Amino acid sequence: MAELRLIAPDDDGIRLDRWFKRHFPALTHGRLEKLLRKGEVRLDGKRAKAADRLIAGQTLRLPPQVIHDKTDARPKAPQPVQTSRRLEDSILYMDKHLFVLNKPPGLATQGGSGLKEHVDGMLDQLAYEKNTRPKLVHRLDRDTSGVLLVARTAQAAAGLSRSLASRDASKIYWALVKGVPREKRGLIKAALAKEGVRGRDERMETVDESEEGAKFALTEYAVMGQAGQDYAWVAARPVTGRTHQIRVHLASLGTPIVGDFKYGGVDARGKGAIADKLHLHARSIDIARPDGGRLQVTAPLPPHMVKSWQLLGFDPDDRREVFAKARPREEKRPQSAAGPAKIRNKNAPKKNAVSRQAPRRKKR
Q1: Is 276 a catalytic residue?
Q2: Are residues 33 and 53 in the same domain?
Q3: What is the distance between the alpha carbons of residues 107 and 117, in angstroms, rounded to a whole number?
């Protein structure tokens, strides 16, 4: 006998096929399409299509063969991580749609080989009154600290993911680098590709954009301060979002991030009381909210970076806005038959602005 299901608020806005994947994971896409063609699945009494967007409060008719499928249980959530850490202590902002966490350095975002603690496995701590498990929206490297978005509903996850994918978001990172970039402000344009090593040892490298597997990458940067010629405090805004993008791009200028031995080698070692930990922090985010308007959140520096800032005479609470207000999605990748054109932020001071082309690996 057929059954009627009411679309819950947490499922508002998702596609019909995604709803079935979420609630009846054993139902294959082929079987679902057959049921839809025969009209056995109906939405508010009408024939439905896989791409239909659901609205909370709608009624969905489920045929008997779906209801009585013995393997129609929800997908298993990641096993909770047994840890004394409390994600609640890292919350910078929360509302009914999302959390913004200040991820501590050394805590992985997701699980992997040999990892016993990771944010994804600890999200059950943040379920609170919701009947759905919170969901990661993006990632940070294990040793990178700072702003991390977590959605509380499927609708919020979809909305935030769309904002990130369409570049309707601006993420600012702070880094301490060894040496001082020759130009105090500029754009680093260099395609990135994997070297072939996976897992904890995964490495990226700058390559010619025509190479197989190359992905266009663009980072805007500005020097916020410097301590002689030994160190520079750099703010970076990734226009694209590639793996290890900021780390590789800053190293390509000859100024690796302090503590980033993967891309800086021994040159990334700190001196004196400067810790040999990665000095890269996701400082702030400005992103379109899933319910309209903008979300703007700033994360304080982790202890080892606060200490370095104080030792070097930098202000860890600096609130200067060094990048133009223009939305990241307005900066488009240049298209030219002659190859990629140089890009410069028209709002940046002309005196120091420069578009940097990072060194590229020769074709093999």
Answers
A1: no
A2: yes
A3: 7
Which pair of structure tokens corresponds to residue 349?
A: 């001071």
Give the burial string for 9-40 (b: 16+ CB within 10 Å, else e). ebbbbbebbbbbbebbeebeeeebeebbeeeb
Task: Write down the catalytic residue from 17, 120, 141, 260.
Answer: 141
Do 180 and 305 fall within a single domain?
Answer: yes
Helix H segments across the chain? 16-23, 29-37, 64-67, 119-122, 154-165, 245-252, 261-264, 303-312
Q: How far apart are alpha carbons 218 and 246 in whole angstroms?
A: 9
Nearest of 282, 281, 284, 280 to residue 296 by alpha carbon: 284
DSSP bridge partners of 137? none
In a domain, 345, yes or no: yes
Q: Bridge partners of 101?
A: 91, 148
**pLDDT for 215-244, tens place per residue?**
999 999 999 999 999 999 999 999 999 999
Residues 232, 135 share a domain: no
pLDDT of residue 153: 87
Q: Are residues 268 and 345 in the same domain?
A: yes
135 closest CA partner among 81, 170, 97: 97
| Residues pairing with 222 in the sheet | 185, 235
Q: Does residue 2 or residue 92 have the better pLDDT?
A: 92
Identity (one letter) of the amino acid at 35? L
Kindly give the pairing relationship between strand 98-103 and strand 145-151.
antiparallel
| C-alpha closest to that of 22 among 14, 13, 31, 33 | 14
Residue 362 covered by a domain = no
Of residues 132, 93, 138, the one with CA closest to residue 120: 138
| Amino acid 340: pLDDT | 36
Distance CA 227, CA 60 (A): 64
Spatial separation of the C-alpha atoms in residues 193 and 257, rounded to whole Å:
20
